[in-house]
């Protein structure tokens, strides 16, 4: 997904994880590892291709206390933006 294909209203982020091609639970585990190394308030962007990732990241945010700032699902891929608690 190129920058020109993204909507302009997505949040700014400080860290990025590409979990494309990985299936559950690997995208969540990669996000969890990245969040552990971040400062409170910073935003992590995670790119995924697993169709179940949208629901998985919604559940992960509720369980972990990190805020799911935004999600962008384009059908074959999705971006998830999590703010570190």
TrEMBL record:
It comes from the Bacteria. PROSITE patterns: UPF0033 (PS01148). Coiled coil: none annotated. Residues 17-41 form the UPF0033 domain. PANTHER family: SULFUR CARRIER PROTEIN YEDF-RELATED. Belongs to the sulfur carrier protein TusA family. This is UPF0033 domain-containing protein. It comes from Bordetella genomosp. 2. The lineage of its organism: Bacteria, Pseudomonadati, Pseudomonadota, Betaproteobacteria, Burkholderiales.
